[in-house]
TrEMBL record:
Stored SUPFAM superfamilies: Cytochrome c oxidase subunit I-like (SSF81442)
Residue ranges annotated for the Cytochrome oxidase subunit I profile domain, each copy included: 194-438
Gene Ontology, cellular component aspect: membrane
Organism domain of life: Bacteria
Alphabetical list of Gene3D superfamilies matching this protein: Cytochrome c oxidase-like, subunit I domain
Keyword Transmembrane helix recorded: yes
Species of provenance: Pelosinus fermentans B4
Keywords: Electron transport, Membrane, Respiratory chain, Transmembrane, Transmembrane helix, Transport
One Pfam assignment: COX1
UniProt keyword annotation of Electron transport present: yes
Record lineage: Bacteria, Bacillati, Bacillota, Negativicutes, Selenomonadales
Protein name: Cytochrome c oxidase subunit I
One Gene Ontology term from the biological process aspect of the record: aerobic respiration
Transmembrane residue ranges: 12-35, 55-72, 84-105, 117-137, 149-172, 192-209, 221-242, 248-270, 291-313, 333-352, 364-392, 412-434
Length: 497
């Protein structure tokens, strides 16, 4: 195991902490929406900005941690700079803390999803530049083929994170230009940059866990990259009609939206074709949880993001459903359903690579994941029905907003109930992860210090000795003694810690 992988643990743990926090905040927002007279101590606008920003940042932090974990595995070498991995984490954590704190205090630029003040956006851009620099220098120094698809996918995704974020550090006087810049993050980040990074990370994970053939996966990744770039950039055009650009963008965006479901189907088909049911049953408890979370992500990718997104982007429908609760349903199913579940999967895999999780805790994990899925589906259903009634009563019949809201109110209770189930799942899973990791918290936050170096080097040596053991049967006894010495040394370090 590489030391770079060890340093990525803190990213995965922080992502889980923010995920649990998001569940609490979202539930509070849903209750406030239904009962506005309860007297929420946090203004609704500040709470909503907090919810939107944390829903973007926790998957981003988890995905960056996953890149640090899987990129060095695919490049088969340590990162160019281990110190930069640690610096990048503390910069990200500090920036996010300041963004969330400032939003609660009312420092809000008023741009949905990008409400943070510009110095904090500048800090976010600096974090993505640090990540990209470390990835590129490692990629160029690697002895692996330059054409390795997992590496290309992750590098391309991280470069586009910068390209599409930098224009949003400042705002623009012309509202159309300002909205186009905003969609570079709100849509293109999710539908292209994170799609590229997620594909590379997911492929590396599947190669490791399911032993799927690299050649088959790499072909799927190249197809995925092509679809993600075309669909990610042009499909965003179905929003442009509403911000003052020519109407042909509505058809261009709607047409290319049909392609967005293809990457997930290609990768899913390749994986299912390459693995067997016996192979799935032989997986460890950890890997079964990981695969179930990935399966959840694939489901929402195809149905919540892909098909629902395509129907909404179809121009004759888009004119009616744009900006209704149907859009909100799509946002929840696409953002958390696709990237949320994927990040939970890779972070769970990362955190419990070296740390053991008890069988009882695995049962709690299964319960939490079922609750998350039940909550998300219930929320999505309630929002879809409410959105459909909004379209009919408000935009077809022509009732006022107040009269329409009275008709859809019962379905917002269904949405709130779904949010309650979701919050139970998110808090339970977060509790299980943090409780299990807590005894090793100092090791998780160990920088590139001596203890982690010695432990990783010892693990590498143990791995080499086991390999020798399998090939040199006559030397079993002396090799076992050497392994025993190393094992005792590892235990001693743990006790000292």
């Amino acid at each position: 195991m590489f030391r770079s992988q060890h340093l990525s643990y803190k990213y995965a743990l922080f992502a889980y902490f923010l995920f649990g926090l998001q569940g609490l905040v979202a539930s509070g927002g849903a209750i406030d929406l239904l009962f506005p007279d309860l007297g929420n101590p946090i203004p609704f606008a500040s709470g909503r900005a907090f919810h939107l920003n944390v829903s973007i940042y926790w998957p981003l932090i988890g995905m960056i941690g996953a890149m640090y974990f899987f990129f060095c595995q695919e490049a088969e070498r340590e990162f160019y700079s281990l110190k930069l991995i640690t610096i990048n984490f503390w910069m990200l954590a500090g920036t996010l803390g300041l963004i969330l704190g400032s939003l609660l205090l009312g420092f809000n630029e008023g741009r949905e999803y990008l409400e943070a003040i510009w110095p904090l956006k500048l800090a976010t851009a600096a974090c993505t530049i640090l990540l990209c620099f470390n990835l590129l220098t490692t990629y160029l120094a690697s002895d692996m083929p330059r054409s390795r698809a997992t590496l290309i996918s992750m590098v391309t995704g991280s470069v586009t994170l910068i390209i599409f974020y930098v224009p949003n550090i400042v705002s623009y006087a012309h509202p159309t230009v300002d909205e186009i810049a905003k969609f570079m993050v709100v849509h293109i980040w999710e539908e292209m940059s994170l799609e590229l990074i997620g594909t590379g990370v997911l492929a590396a994970l599947l190669i490791q866990v399911t032993k799927v053939k690299r050649q088959a996966v790499e072909t799927a990744i190249y197809l995925d990259i092509t679809f993600a770039v075309l669909a990610g950039i042009i499909a965003t055009g179905h929003h442009y009609y509403w911000i003052g650009v020519p109407s042909y963008w509505l058809w261009l965006g709607g047409t290319f939206s049909a392609m967005q479901v293809l990457p997930a189907i290609v990768l899913l088909y390749t994986t299912v074709k390459s693995i067997t049911f016996k192979g799935i049953f032989d997986l460890s408890y950890r890997d079964k949880i990981t695969m179930f979370l990935i399966g959840s992500s694939m489901f929402y990718h195809i149905f919540g993001a892909g098909f629902l997104g395509f129907l909404m982007a179809y121009p004759p429908l888009n004119r009616y459903v744009h900006g209704t609760y149907i859009t909100s349903a799509h946002s929840h199913l696409a953002l958390f359903g696709v990237f949320g579940f994927l990040v939970l999967a890779v972070c769970f895999h990362i955190l419990f690579t070296e740390i053991m999780l008890g069988k009882k805790m695995y049962r709690w994990c299964w319960g939490a994941i079922i609750s998350l899925n039940a909550g998300l589906l219930t929320m999505g259903l309630g929002l879809l029905i409410a959105g459909g009634l909004q379209v009919y009563f408000w935009r077809v019949i022509g009732l006022s907003i107040g009269e329409t809201n009275e008709f859809i109110r019962p379905y917002l209770f269904i949405r709130a109930f779904g949010g309650f189930l979701y919050a139970i799942g998110s808090l339970t899973l977060t509790f299980v992860v943090i409780k299990s990791i807590w005894p090793k918290i100092q090791v998780i936050f160990q920088s590139e210090g001596r203890l982690s170096i010695v432990k990783c080097d010892d693990l590498h040596r143990m791995h080499g000795l086991v390999e020798e053991l399998l090939q040199e049967e006559k030397k079993i006894e002396p090799l076992l003694k050497r392994i025993q010495v190393l094992y005792q040394r590892l235990l001693l370090f743990d006790k000292e810690k």
